[in-house]
What we know:
The chain is of the alpha/beta class. The protein has six helices and seven strands, in the order E-H-E-H-E-E-H-E-E-H-E-H-H.
Amino acid sequence: xxxxxxxxxxxxxxxxxxxxxxxxxxxxxxxxxxxxxxxxxxxxxxxxxxxxxxxxxxxxxxxxxxxxxxxxxxxxxxxxxxxxxxxxxxxxxxxxxxxxxxxxxxxxxxxxxxxxxxxxxxxxxxxxxxxxxxxxxxxxxxxxxxxxxxxxxxxxxxxxxxxxxxxxxxxxxxxxxxxxxxxxxxxxxxxxxx
Length: 194
């Protein structure tokens, strides 16, 4: 069985991979995030690529490294993690009653014959919220839950009750499009669960 490393400290990505039956270890990227791209799909691919490469170092032959990054985009603007509670509330006021996009980029590195082979893709999911009052938003923000999440919410958390619908992969919104990851790797002849 190949050694698999998740280059992320995200508890949500960890949980998604565990539920999929993948055995792995965590080695978070410590690199500062920097991008040269401007399109959301390209930004997440670039960020996931850097995360995966940042932990490659002296990893042994046959190891698989998975890097991932998720962003939220609304009307062409990237909505990252909020700076503070007020920023989170302002972000959620924009998103309520509207549809936005969640993008996750995934890069898988495989060390084969001393050479790293990268495979990168991005997944997009549309998320639509019902209208939400400012009071409901501020109550949610005070819980502290949105402060470490792109777009200031977690669909699996308490703000998920306001989701009217999604078009695409739910796990992508959580932080890792697991079904696509497993499928893409099978296409490359790699079973992450075996």
